[in-house]
Design goal:
The protein has 14 helices and 16 strands. By secondary structure, the protein is an alpha/beta fold. It has two domains: 226 residues, Rossmann fold (3-Layer(aba) Sandwich), CATH 3.40.50.10540; 77 residues, formyl-coa transferase, domain 3, CATH 3.30.1540.10. The strands form five sheets. It has a seven-stranded parallel beta sheet, with helices on both faces. A hairpin with a 5-residue loop joins strand 12 and strand 13. Helix 2 crosses helix 8. The longest helix has 24 residues.
Length: 378
Amino acid sequence: MSTSLDVDKGPWPAAAKGPWGECLSGLKVLDLSRHLPGPLSSLLLVDLGASVLKIEPPGGDEMRIIGPIGPRGKSIYFEAVNAGKISLKLDLRAEAGKARFLELADEADILLESFRPGTLDRLGLGHETLLKRNPGLIFCSLSGFGATGPRRDQAGHDNNYLSLNGALAGTGLKDLPVFFDPPVADVTGSMMATIAMLAAVNRRARDGKGCFLDMSLADSVMPLISFPLAGLDAGRGAPVREGELLNGGAARYRVYRCADGKFATLGAIEPKFWIAFCEAAGHPEWILRYEDPLPQTDLIAEVTAFFAALTQAEATARLEPADCCYAPVLTLDQAVETEQIQARGLVRRGADGHWQALFPGQIDGEAAAIRPPWREIE
């Protein structure tokens, strides 16, 4: 287990700057994960000051070539989720590569991997082996379905996880379930893994013990559906698309099309916001229809007609001052330039000129520091 705070030696990158970077300064993370969930998880650790060394196979992570290729010959998606990290290629099937990896694992505080369960065990690099060598190691396995259960060896992607865990059936249009992009299970799984690793670091500070964390992308969906689960428990049955408060069944919580083809959202869940909307819209007669039974088909049709008569700009000018939980649907290029996002320091351009979505918070009034570009070492 690493105890030195001077990690800018050997292959380990320097910690992020600023007060966020001081939070995990000295923490060494060995990252074998690929695609989105694992790399996003370790990216959050980068923003908080951890030193992340990414281990890639001899041919490189396949994410290097998935998606649009950037000016450095790598996928822009790969570089986006690996900024601030250093990559080292190792052949874990060869004795020399395995020996080098074991040396690094002996130094590491955290190991993050996203292979199917049992993959590293077959290479002689499973959590039991590594924890014997480094008892303080936090070994986090982030797989699709986890290391136990009948689906442990099954392949899957985000829409599969949502489908199997009951989240997709109640989401989307009345006649068609619709999944979301960015992928819900993938990004939630990455955050759950980050939370678990930080919790384990805190526990280790008390007892000095490492552990094996078995995290699943499919599992990560379940805390998100606590409300529908409570409804099921209360005998209301599973959610019906466009039939519930938060999935389009209520007029006060929907997406509406404007006269110019653009869209707007209304989120007037609480009575005070619904009243404010009705008054600003010039339809005080709608106020008493707040509790119309779900789905509020007739009321939805009337509110739909109201928005259809206004352009998005007209709707914004009329409703935003009313503080009724109204918002125009912005495209991403519009959103990143808004005063709110810029003021919060959420998205900034790195030294290479590319956008970076940084850790979403401020500490002592400061946002997370911009990450240096990803780089590779021999």
